[in-house]
Amino acid sequence: MLGPHDPLPPAASRILIAGTSGSGKTTLAGRLSETLGIPHHEMDNLHWGAGWTTRESFLEDVAAFVATEAWVSEFQYREVRPLTAGRAQVMVWLDYPVRTRMWRVLRRTLRRRFRREPMWDVGLLEPPLWTILRNPDHIVRFAWRTRKNFDGLPAALAEKYPHLTLVRLRSPREARQWLDGVALAASHDRPEGVGS
Prior knowledge:
Blueprint: E1 14-18, H1 25-36, E2 40-41, H2 43-47, E3 48-49, E4 53-54, H3 58-66, E5 71-74, H4 81-87, E6 90-94, H5 98-115, H6 131-134, H7 139-145, H8 153-160, E7 165-169, H9 172-189
Parallel strand pairs: 1-5, 1-6, 2-5, 6-7
Antiparallel strand pairs: 3-4
Helix pairs in contact: 1-9, 5-7
């Protein structure tokens, strides 16, 4: 298992970001995509359709990008995890404290609701805050219920996907340190005059 000071394995071009709600999977995936110059396929964007329904093309869309040689995405949705993990070379695990993740979920939910921020291509809106009381799958309740879902991740990967290199980051600070290292290595690998 690698940590914040370890480099990304050479030639790694298919990368998954794992973590529970609020860990910052999509943010890190986007930054990693920019740093490495590889496509980011946002899993929530592929999954959600109108009225909070699953897009009919979800499985096909995931299978299509997974078949390509370079991508970064989030390790989400049980039905496609075998596809993504089976093809990925590296998994980055954002294993932050529960308080950090829950605070981020709450802050993001309030921001999206009060600003009426549309989410993903379909333009979904955060439901009214009172729905947290009635909807057991409201994102805040879901985040709390699933907060321990990745506690056994290293053992599960060793059994099901032993080919994956696991990078474990335990705080946002470690994630920044690791990404800075990836960026530095990528700048050294870049041909002279490119990106400068």
